[in-house]
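Forum > Structural Biology > Help requests

Title: Can anyone predict the 3D structure of Esterase?

Hi all, first post here. I have the sequence for Esterase but no way to get a structure on my laptop. I'd be grateful if someone could post the structure tokens.
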Amino acid sequence: MKKTIQVNMERSGLWQDTNVTYAQVPGWLGHATRDLKLTVIRHFEGQAEKMPVIVWFAGGGWMDVDHNVHLPNLVDFARAGFVVASVEYRHSNLANWPAQLEDAKAAIRYLKAHAATYQIDPDKVIVMGESAGGHLASMTALTNGMSQYETGAYLEQNSDVAVAVPWYGVVDPLSAKQNSASDDFDFVYRNLLGAEPEEAPELDQAADPLSFVEKNQVPFMILHGTKDEVVPLADSEKLYEMLVKNGHPADLIELEGAAHMDEAYLQPEVSQMITDFINKQLK
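Reply #1:
Sure, ran it for you. Structure tokens for Esterase below:
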């Protein structure tokens, strides 16, 4: 069969810029320098408008970070009109908290400094992540404007974000350790903080989003499964309550029957809910 068709141009094509160095940090016991990478899914050149950017932080207990692992699933958000940047951050065997927060903010400053290249609207940055990455998204949003976490390059840029969307994110490390249905991952909190959270309340508080909810009123959409045995659902419920109490626009979406890192989060219905929430908050 031979035929000629006219194709309607309904969406732009997508480019992927893989493993872009956004910062350099101390490596190998402080005696060397290592690159930190991010990958950007961006739209073909020539789009008329700058786009919001979703900055994604993968999970892994702050111990095993693969910033490219969820890229196939994040394409849904690129198709919905966002630029997507998936960010590597130092794991806890390389550096304790707040190094991970410093990395997240460095990545955002880099993206804002290169906004024209990636067709990003620098005033419309959304942070999103899962588990440890959800914790990092929450902390990044709640520390808007706090200069003590700004280190490295592009300091002429700010790292402020407009919306946060944590997926089953850790809240208080101590609560997560004590109230999880499984003790298989208790060690990750010690690795993150450099001490057991119950023995170092100041370190625990410094990594607890609940300590920062009064600092700003960034909108939050929290997602958490009712069958999560790793991160307690009650911690997300407490975060939601504290956010609302302190004037944050906030939604808590509990996914019935969903476990930790469940495929339920990757369904079109959930992606659409997230997209709708973000667009509403960015108006």
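The chain has one domain: 14-282. The longest strand covers residues 14-27.
Shout if anything looks off.
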